[in-house]
Amino acid sequence: MQDENEFENNAEDILENKIEHAYELIENKDFQKLKELLAELEPADIAMMLEEVPIEKVPLIFRILPKELAADTFVEMDSDQQEVLIRAFSDEELEQVMRDVFVDDTVDIIEEMPANVVRRILKSISPERRAKINDIMHYPEDSAGSIMTIEYVDLTESMTVADAFDKIRETGLNKETIYTCYVIDGNRKLKGLVTVMTLLTSPQEAVIADIMDENVIFTTTDADKEDVSKLIEKYDLLAIPVVDLEHRLVGIVTVDDAIDVIQEEAEEDFAKMNAITPMEKPYLKTSVFNIWKSRIPWLMLMMVSATFTGMIISSFESALAKVVILTSFIPMLMDTGGNSGSQASVTIIRGLSLGEIEFSDILRVIWKEARVSILCGISLAVATFLKIMLINNLLLHENVDWTVALVVCITMALTIVIAKFIGCTLPLLAKKIGFDPAVMASPFITTIVDAVSLLIYFSVATSILPGI
Amino acid sequence: MQDENEFENNAEDILENKIEHAYELIENKDFQKLKELLAELEPADIAMMLEEVPIEKVPLIFRILPKELAADTFVEMDSDQQEVLIRAFSDEELEQVMRDVFVDDTVDIIEEMPANVVRRILKSISPERRAKINDIMHYPEDSAGSIMTIEYVDLTESMTVADAFDKIRETGLNKETIYTCYVIDGNRKLKGLVTVMTLLTSPQEAVIADIMDENVIFTTTDADKEDVSKLIEKYDLLAIPVVDLEHRLVGIVTVDDAIDVIQEEAEEDFAKMNAITPMEKPYLKTSVFNIWKSRIPWLMLMMVSATFTGMIISSFESALAKVVILTSFIPMLMDTGGNSGSQASVTIIRGLSLGEIEFSDILRVIWKEARVSILCGISLAVATFLKIMLINNLLLHENVDWTVALVVCITMALTIVIAKFIGCTLPLLAKKIGFDPAVMASPFITTIVDAVSLLIYFSVATSILPGI
Questions:
Q1: Residues B432, B359: contact at Cβ < 8 Å?
Q2: What fold, for B283-464?
Q3: What is residue A216's three-state secondary structure?
């Protein structure tokens, strides 16, 4: 069925074949052919391939990579493998690899290594670069400063286009991006930017000051990295300049790092909203103990906080004993309530994360949710009544009294309205007092909504049903 | 406290001031100054500003924008405003704006417009572009073809570096990116790529065939846009070429579109996992009716499926009537079970989305979750026992019998193990049979886990407690 054309067109198959072939060459110790093959692969793919190779063979294979590919591959590897390699490297080899690694990537590597490995890395780096690494490591976690790269092309206003091209040619290969160049004055203050596109379409003798764009979108070293990524996304930038408090250019954040931040923040929200402490490594690489550690505190919290729901049920024991059928609707009421609440909270939490909703929108949000919840409440109450009459009574012959059905339906409607109110306000309030809204989503809202729905249930039951 | 320096450093404040100023100028009808001010703003900011301007004034303000800024701003506006503008435009104005809009953006606009507006747009576009738009609109939704841009720089192997620069200068301004140029042969087959960086560091007379990179990471028109974005992310690309079945270059997908896809897919997962049908517009712009529509089906499904849990409780009515305290632990068992299940399912669903986990990992996943769930189960069972003895008995004097406590703890441990098993396998099975794993997360897993936890509870109770 598979013709050659279709095969050739599938980039993934080609890659898989190459990697399979690489494994064979390693098996047969054909390092000459392996070297040729690896040169065709991307750093990320070589790193992926090396994960499946016995750890003791990794340094051997790594050594046959061309110098620059080696450094790029090193950056893509996971920290366990990096550590093995660093331990296997001679001082000279380490020096050579680290020379080609960008400062921001070096910082990432250092942060994952044990102290003795860090000492060896720092020893292998020039004092000048060491100072720069130190600077970046001192920026607060999650700040623009901590993720910026310091390899960019800077120009001055008096340069000509020809000068600019000379500078790009001379230093460009060691810069993370050359396509946007930043214009600074004698004090390194950011004056403007000029793209290579502009340079290419300007005469060679034009002066940078005349062609540069002075409306630069920039950020500061202490800005939240999430906000920085949002700027890059909003304005479709390839990189954004980072300035210090004196408006001096100190680095840039590139679009690939912004994608990582966006991805990372979304994953953190996914974890927190579902009662998991965010983990650093992918699931399959995280130890059982660490997964347990990331999950158990929330389950414990949930278990203890369920004391309230237990107390509510206990105090209505006699009512439940009299009208036993009431118990059978508890799961439905709790689940629908919990779900209604989480529908609202997730919408608001993501809106906050994406910057679409702010605390000042709280009244608009409440008004919107109020209308949605009344619509949802009425439609579900009606549906529940029909369901009880058709499924529970006609089909299952449970003979639920219509007054009990009424109690269930009224509770359903009220629970939904309150659940959505809690679900939409709690994240906004959390944000306001400086808490992470995402943490509010699961255990807190569930516990509160559970308790509220039971209280409503029993209040409605005692006031409508005769004799309890 | 706020000195001038700090103020100047805050890009957000500067922007807000400019926008405030713009509103004043609109109010005072000072269009000359407004024109100057708008020229300093980014298209995304002008679009944001126009959202707060009375709709009837928008066409007036739009007309004072410089031609290219107008087109860029138009693309950034939301579809309601675009529609108002198109209706206000003369045929000539519409033609002028559409001329500067990229084909992929035109497709996005057309997809949101009512039929009569679409007809006007298509009439304003040259037949040649219209054919291209038609092509893109025929690619399946969510395919690379549907989001690709057809404005890229293509070179041939026999060109020199000087020729390449000439072509970039000549056509570059109308291309979405010029920094990666694609090399094609006479049949438009993709042969390689060359970056502007390489062009800049090569001699003017060098031939493209000699300097191009033949190991091109590419994708096909029918590839899933999510996979395409993953490639861009993995290899840190600025753009990826898209080829048809004959390996002919037909377009490129750029990194800014990839970010949008990544963001969009994450939001879809957030919605689905929390029983919401994904919505197209931001929350505050979505109508109450549409929000209701996106939430009610799942709540209904949940309500109906709770029939099972109700049935289980009904059939154990007599047991519950005898040991009434059993009822008070139902919420705790159900919530902890539901949470344990969702912890596992969210982890697996995101792993699948990110490509970190595949169906073939199912045994590894089950083995990992088995160990995690046994750890969680034992620790929670012990904690529950202590909690019942300390809080329920010592503090609240509920006098829970130790045999009842035992029933609760055994149920807790078993529920967690089974919930995590269901939570980790369901999404993988869903993926295998072509369902969306994210939809499995909330209503399905909750309903199943609820039913299972109740069944375990009553089975354990009837076998341990005397007389029920």
A1: yes
A2: Tetracycline Repressor; domain 2 (1.10.357)
A3: coil
Superfamily of domain A154-263: CBS-domain (3.10.580.10)
Options 3.10.580.10, 3.40.50.2300, 3.20.20.10, 3.40.50.150; CATH of B154-271: 3.10.580.10
Interface of A with B in 340-399 (CB under 8 A): 340, 342-343, 346-348, 350-351, 354, 356-357, 361, 364-365, 368, 371-372, 375-376, 379-380, 383-384, 387, 391-392, 396, 398
**What 3-state DSSP class applies to A181?**
strand
Residue A450 corresponds to which amino acid? D
**Which tens digits make up the pLDDT trace of B178-227?**
899 999 999 999 999 999 999 999 999 999 999 999 989 999 999 999 99
The residue ranges of chain A whose pLDDT is under 70 are: 1-10, 442
Spacing of C-alpha A101 from chain mean position:
24
DSSP class of B224: B
**Residue B382 pLDDT class (50, 70, 90 cuts):** very high
Q: Which two tokens stand for residue A329?
A: 């609707």
Does residue B460 have a pLDDT over 90? yes
**Candidates 3.40.50.2300, 1.25.60.10, 3.40.50.2000, 2.40.50.180; correct CATH number of A11-138?**
1.25.60.10
Torsion of CA B167, B172, B173, B179, to 10 degrees: -150
- The residue of B40, B268, B327, B362 whose CB has the most chain A CBs within 10 angstroms, and thus the best one to mutate to test that interface, is B327
Reported as a single tens digit per residue, the pLDDT across B305-348 is: 888 888 898 888 888 888 878 888 999 999 899 889 999 999 99
Report pLDDT digits (tens) over B80-102.
889 989 988 988 889 888 888 88
Tell me how far apart the alpha carbons of residues B9 and A51 are, in angstroms, rounded to a whole number. Answer: 45
Distance CA B232, CA A108 (A): 21
Chain B positions touching A263 (Cβ under 8 A) are: 233, 262, 266, 354
A 57-76 near B (Cβ less than 8 A): none
Sorted by where each begins, the domain ranges of chain A are 11-138, 154-263, 306-464
Instruction: List the structure tokens of A440.
Output: 């509010």
Angle subtended by helix axes A330-353 and B288-315, to nearest 10: 150
CATH assignment of B10-138, given 3.40.109.10, 1.25.60.10, 3.40.50.300, 1.10.760.10? Answer: 1.25.60.10
Q: Which CATH class is domain A306-464?
A: mainly alpha
DSSP 8-state assignment for residue B443: I
Going through A89-147 in order, the beta strands assigned E by DSSP cover none
ipTM confidence score: 0.83
B7: pLDDT strictly greater than 80: no
pLDDT > 90: what percent of chain A?
49
Those residues whose C-beta lies under 8 Å from the C-beta of residue A195, and which sit 6 or more positions away, are: A179, A180, A181, A213
Question: pTM score, two decimals?
Answer: 0.84
pLDDT digits (tens, 9 = 90+) for B15-58: 888 888 988 998 888 888 999 899 888 999 999 888 888 888 88
Structure tokens at A336: 């629908």
Q: Are A28 and A53 in contact (CB under 8 A)?
A: no
